[in-house]
Structure formats: structure tokens, C-alpha cells
What does this fold into?
Amino acid sequence: MTQDSLVRRITDYANRANPYPLYEELRKTPVLHEEEGGPYVISSYWDIESLLHDPRISSDATNLTAAGEDELAGVEATGLPPSFIRLDPPEHDRLRRIANSSFGPPHRPTRIDSMRGELARIVTELIDGFGDARQIDLVDQFAYPFPVTVICRLLGVPREDEPRFRAWVDPIVAALDPETRAAPDSEAARSAREARMQLGMYLAGLVEERAKEPRDDMLSDLVTSRGPDGAMTTMEVLSTSVLLLIAGHETTVNLITNGMLTLLRHPEYLHRLREDPGLAPNIVEELLRYEPPVQLVPQRTCIADVELRGVTIPKGARIWLVLAAGNRDPERFHEPDRFDPDRGDIQHLGFGSGIHSCFGAPLARLEAQIALAELTRRLENPRLLEDPPPYRPNAVLRGPRHLNIAFEGLRA
It folds into this structure.
């Protein structure tokens, strides 16, 4: 791609803090194909939604590999067999149904909602941990440790093992950034490989324990599931667990951090949320539209020719679906560049759509609602120390690497 390529500018770190003017430019060519062999980039709301439901668009990792190298394709670098988000039906459907049976309705209708008290306790502990400080990095001290702790409790990782678990997660998550993936011999890449091996060995041991003595946790359910779809293999259980860990961690960190950043830029809503925690669901849904944690989906391949707006996207071509551009499409949303939790209609693409819609969405929503409501309630006069903050390199999973906030004290 040339230096002035629109796709190149979108992925350029220099534009990470505010890619939205580029998305506006992108929507002028709703089906953009800048060079031979490059991806077809889709940016309008209705087109993205349609393609997310189109069986001619494949998520299978083998099809993506056959389509050629893609600088954004390596988001799920686990060293395990592909999880179900990188598979097509029928295998995708079988694995997702088994996973869903241990995650929510109808088999476990209260699993997520019953975690409200536990989530609130974790949030309280983290905020209490700020102590007498009057300045924090919200990412390192809150948004980063929160979802790892939650997923440990959900899977059934013993409390005494949580510090080890977090120590493995840190290098694995760091390796998702493009710079690390581009340098497989770097120290960061080696640390990630070692952490993946250690995490895999640990989880395999835990799977073996749960097979012998099941408990009331998600890992036990995955191991002992014997429904009409059969049971997951050990490797499938491991892939699903790591998917929940990595995908759930990254999206939630970004959702909470982008959320607090947006509220501090729009103090009227911060004050309203402090006074009325019942506003949290609307605020989180508008955040998923306005500042989605997943900006684009690059892991799609056409398995048949697709006609879209007079353009033929050929079989075998790679497709990028720019969710964040669709979420700001004026053909779908009134005044799309305005943050407005009072919108009557917030049918966003923040969690995708179709058979690959975000598996962990119910948990991510609940985590963000509780976290943002409690942060706004307890931090006295919070304010940004740097705007824009420094962002992480990743163009897909976009969010601040640090969010330094000053405040005058903690409410009880």
C-alpha cells in the first residue's frame, strides 16, 4: 500500500487517537479496494450488518490464510487450535452451542446476572486500592486487572492461583500488538510463547481436575457437557477458555477505559451517572456505538463472489468490516458524531452481529455498567491529565494504553 493509502492511514498509529475523520472519508467509497490483492474495506452500517449475516463470508482461519497475508489478521495468536470464532458452520455452531450452554440461557440463565455481587466486590476492592493517591492510571490500576479477575472467577481458577494467571496473561495480551507480531524473535514474542505454554499446561491440569471432580464453574461445565452436540475435546475446552480470557479481557479493558475517557470529555453525563446509576445501561450501549472497543473485523474471506453496490467482490478476496465507521454512519444514526446516551435507538455494531456476535457480550456489558457507575460515584472531581492519552498500537482493539486521572479523594 502507498503511504497516502486510506487503509494505510487508518492503520497508521499517528491516527489512533482520532480515526473518525478517516472513517468519514472512507464512507464516501463504501466498498474500497485500493490495490490488487488488498482487502475490500466495507464502511457503511447497512452493508456491514448484511455481510455479518451473509454465509458467503467466511471466518475460517484456513480460508483467510489461503487469501494471503493480512497485517491485521493475527489478533487471536494463542498457539492452540482455532476457537469457534475462527470457524464456520457447522463446527462453529456445535462449539458455540456447547459453550453457550455453560454461559447463559437456557441451561445457565442466572450465571452472569448472579455475578453482580461478585463484580461489585471486585470493583470496590480495586477502587479501595487507590488508597490516599490523588492520581491513578485507570488502565493499569483498574481496567486491566478487573476483567482478568472476573474471568478467573467465572472459569473457576482457584483464588490462590489468580496472581500466576495474571502473570501469564500480561505477555500474551502484549503480544497482540502489531509490533510484537511483526518481530517473532523479539523478547516480547518469546515471553508470550512461554506464557502461552505455561497457561496451556496450567489449564490442561485444571481441566483434568474438573473432569474428576466437577465444581460450579464454567470450566467444569465445558468439561462435563454431554448434550446433543456431544462433548468438547480437551483441546477445544482449552481454546474456548483462552478465547474467553483474551477476547473478554481486551474488549472489556477498552470499553471501560474508552468509557471513562468519554465521560470525562462529557462531564454532564458523568454527573448524571453519579446521581442516577440507572443510566449506566444506556451509557454503555452508546459507548459501544460511539467508541467501540473493536474498531474493525479483518478476519473475513469471501467463499463466493459477492455483489455489493455495483462492485463484485471475488471469491477468495479478503474483507475488512469497519464496525466503528458503520457506527458513525449518518444514513443510520442522527448526528452520529455526538455522544448521546439518550438516543431512542442505539442498535450499534459494537458487538458485531449474526452468528459471530460477541459471545461474552452479556458479561462485558455488566462489567462496564458496574465499573463506570462506581468510578463516577466514588472519584471526587475526576479530571484528565492528558488528552488525548497515549494509545496502544493495535488498530483493531483500539484503546488508551494509559489513562492518567487526577481526583480529590474517594467517596465511601
About this structure: The two ends are 54 Å apart (CA to CA).
